[in-house]
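[09:14] KT: can someone run the structure on this one? pasting the chain below
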Amino acid sequence: ISQVRELCKSLKYATSDMDASMRYDIASYFVPEIEELMSSITNFGLGIQDVHQKVIEATCQTREYNLKNAKTKNRTLKHILITKEILYMKSFDDRLGVILSYLIQEREGFVEQPASEKVRDISRQIEQLVDEIPFTIHKLQTFSNILQEKLDLESFKFCFTVASSLISELLEKYKMQKRSLRHFVGQLISQLQNENIEDCLTQLGLFESPDAKPKATPKQDIGKSPLDLTEEFS
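[09:31] RB: done, structure tokens below
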């Protein structure tokens, strides 16, 4: 949070002398970039939604299979937890759908505007963002103070452990949909052209380079997850 706050302070200093002419020049430069960015974000979101829906479907099938093969007809704790997990994933899918519908509508409206109107629109947005920087800095400072007061080290360890466990479990579900992810992740890597991101996705098991050579698998302790985010805080 402190780094974001310092970034906002730097932006405030850099934009203190920005006039209407400078905003117009910046807007003219960013118009084609914004169109491409909106298209990329929309396609990225649609790809995530498609894979996420497959994860939901696979989880539902697992739940029904476990219920069908259960020795008792009473719902077990595992069945209840899986059902709750499915509801959370469906809620996220619904929210993602609303956001994507809004983005698609905004993109279509922006693309249909004349070039001059696009520049004026972006120029107004830049002016509004500059005016809101001081308020954003104040809110970040307030939020940081609240965290320091409410969240002690032990609470942070607990929240971090829970969050990392959920992320690790979600990654395992996405890895089971690697065939569906292959095209989407390949497109993402080709657009970003960043070796660090490609290496990260490969290490997480979400991507496998076509020209990658098989490597010897190092010995690991049984039961130890490759994504051990809680080791440092245990």
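[09:33] KT: thanks! Residues 27 and 123 are 5 Å apart (CA to CA).
[09:34] RB: yep, looked fine to me
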